[in-house]
Each structure stands twice: as C-alpha cells, then as structure tokens.
Automatic annotation (TrEMBL):
Active site: D271, E280
InterPro entries reported for this sequence: 6-hairpin_glycosidase_sf (IPR008928), 6hp_glycosidase-like_sf (IPR012341), Glyco_hydro_9 (IPR001701), Glyco_hydro_9_Asp/Glu_AS (IPR033126)
Organism from which the protein derives: Biomphalaria pfeifferi
The keyword Glycoprotein is annotated on this UniProt entry: no
Gene Ontology MF terms: cellulase activity
Reactions it catalyzes: Endohydrolysis of (1->4)-beta-D-glucosidic linkages in cellulose, lichenin and cereal beta-D-glucans
Family: Belongs to the glycosyl hydrolase 9 (cellulase E) family.
Name of this protein: Endoglucanase
Enzyme class: hydrolase
E.C. no: 3.2.1.4
GO terms of biological process kind: cellulose catabolic process
Domain Glycoside hydrolase family: 1-293
C-alpha cells in the first residue's frame, strides 16, 4: 500500500474521549482476564493504563475527528460507560459504577456495533445493579429485534437490520442475546433466537442451493471473492493492484474464518469482490460472531443448547 498512511493520535488539545474510553474498557477487561489466569503483573500493567486513559477521557471530552469521514463516532458516552463498568469490575471502586450510571443512555438502541455500544451498557448496568430501569431498557432492545418487533427478517430468517453488514448486525445482537440470557433476560427465547441467527450465517439458508456458509472456509460452499485486499493478492513477489480487485477468479488467498457482509433483505447474495456492501470483511463483522460461537459452545458444555427451527435448514 503505497499511499500516505499517517499515524494519528489524541492528546489534551486534540481530544478523542471515544477512542480513549473504548481502549480503557478493553484494557480493564484484559486486566480481569489476565488476573484470572494468574498473571498479576501484566494484569496490573493493563489496569494502570486503563485507569490513566479513562481519567484522560473524562477530563478531555471530545470526539475524534481525524478519520476524514470513515468510522466517525457520534457520541462518547457509550465508550465511557463501558470503560467505567469494566474498571468497576476490575477494581470494585464504587465511583466507577456511579460514573457508568451517568453515561448510560436508556433510550432504545438501533443496534450493537462499532458505532454504538449503548445496549451493552444497559445490560452491564442491569447485571451490576439488578435495577428495573436497566432491565427494561435491554428488554426493549431485544423486543425490537425478536420476531414481531421492528427489525425486518429475510425469508430464511436472518434478522436484517441493514443492507451494509447484515450478517454483522445479526451476529452482534446474537452475542448480546446469549450474554443477556445468562443474566436471566428472556433466557429461552434469546438462546433459541441467537443460535438460529448463527445457524443461518453458517448454512441454514437457501443461497446456492442451500447450506451456504457466509464464513469463509466453513463447509463446502462459502464466498470465494471477498472484498479484501490481502486475500485478493497473489503470492509475493507478484505485484498486486486494482486489476486484482476486478479479477473474476477466486481470491488467491483463502481468508479462513472471515464473515462477509451478507445477503439482501430477500436473501439474495452475489459473491462479487467489487460489491463491497455485501462482500466486505472487517474486524467488527467477526467480533460478535466469534463471541456468539463461544456462547453456543458454553450452552453445549452445559447441555442446554436449545432446539432450533430454522426456516431453511441445511440437510447435508
């Protein structure tokens, strides 16, 4: 990639409390994970960094504006809410919990995505307080997603929130649904619904005769033309350029594990590298999906995997 790719940063005069808050949340969660594994030294390193970043984010509020229109944030309260909750869980310092209560937004969330972690914060606060105001907020979110709510469903049953990254939207909420079920929110309904959404992505659909996996490398039928620069390039030292984007042959590199954007609202899908809306892959496309898979493995281990009823089951 030969174009200019400058390194950007946030500081006291160029704030980015959304970025700092989100990073603090990740570091605090990491501190908990490493402590649980017995690595107290690294856990403390992560926690110190998390607290420092959180303090910076609270003191210098302001959204990062250096991405030139790509992945611009519209709020920092969701990231600050996540940061304060995870810091509370890591330290048991009650001030962090009080902070989270000031940052949470109890209005109905549109989705769970890179842009909005609002429903996560609603669930976190319910888990920590058992307060009905947070329980109602997260229940309202799932009622809007479950059949009969405001989210459209494809003929084969994918909860289709948007054209861009339809699989991502469904998988992220499936992950959140499995987490909420563990906390007593509609456990039977949410577990069944979440597993059915992942089943659709992995093959319970009618594309290409059925049994088509939107995860590359899973099963026998999956996308071979993802919109992904690295996967499109031949082995080095052969050059790679826009001719590879426009090539009609399968990508030289199999991007095993990646989730592509997903189908249209009527379940139609074209495996076309140039159609980045349906075929783009991204970290946030996989994040919730992988979390949902972990939740399903947990249900299997506990022998409580629900019976499902996908509309277009794979019979192979």
């Amino acid at each position: 990639m030969t174009m200019a790719r400058p390194c950007l940063k946030v500081n006291t005069s160029y704030p980015g409390s959304d970025i700092a808050g989100g990073t603090a949340a990740a570091l605090a969660a990491g501190a908990i994970a490493f402590k649980a594994k017995g690595d107290n030294g690294y856990s403390n390193t992560l926690l110190t960094a998390a607290e420092s970043l959180y303090s910076f984010a609270k003191t210098y509020r302001g959204l990062f504006t250096g991405s030139h229109g790509f992945y611009d944030s519209d709020d920092d309260r969701d990231e600050l809410c996540e940061a304060s909750i995870w810091l509370y869980r890591a330290t048991q310092n009650g001030q962090y919990l009080e902070d989270a209560k000031t940052f949470v937004d109890l209005t109905l969330a549109w989705d769970l995505s890179w842009l909005s972690k609002k429903p996560s914060c609603q669930l976190y606060l319910f888990e920590e307080t058992q307060s009905n105001q947070y329980k109602t907020a997260i229940q309202n979110y799932f009622n809007s997603w479950l059949p009969g709510g405001t989210v459209t469903y494809t003929p084969c049953g994918l909860a289709w929130r948007s054209k861009w990254g339809s699989n991502r939207e469904a998988a992220n909420t499936a992950f959140l649904a499995l987490a909420a079920a563990e906390s007593g929110i509609f456990p039977d309904r949410l577990r069944k619904w979440a597993v059915e959404q992942i089943n659709f992505i992995l093959g319970d659909n009618n594309h290409d005769g059925g049994c088509f996996s939107y995860q590359i490398g899973y099963g026998t039928k999956y996308p071979t033309h993802p919109h992904h620069r690295g996967a499109s390039c031949p082995n080095r030292p052969a050059p790679c350029g826009f001719e590879n984007l426009h090539a009609t042959t399968p990508s030289p590199q199999v991007l095993v594990g990646a989730i592509v954007g997903g189908p249209e609202a009527d379940d139609t899908y074209a495996d076309n590298r140039e159609d980045y809306v349906l075929n783009e892959v991204a970290l946030d496309y996989n994040a919730g999906f992988q979390g949902a898979l972990a939740g399903i493995v947990h249900l299997q281990a506990k022998n409580i995997l629900p019976a499902t009823n996908n509309k277009c089951p794979c019979t192979n």
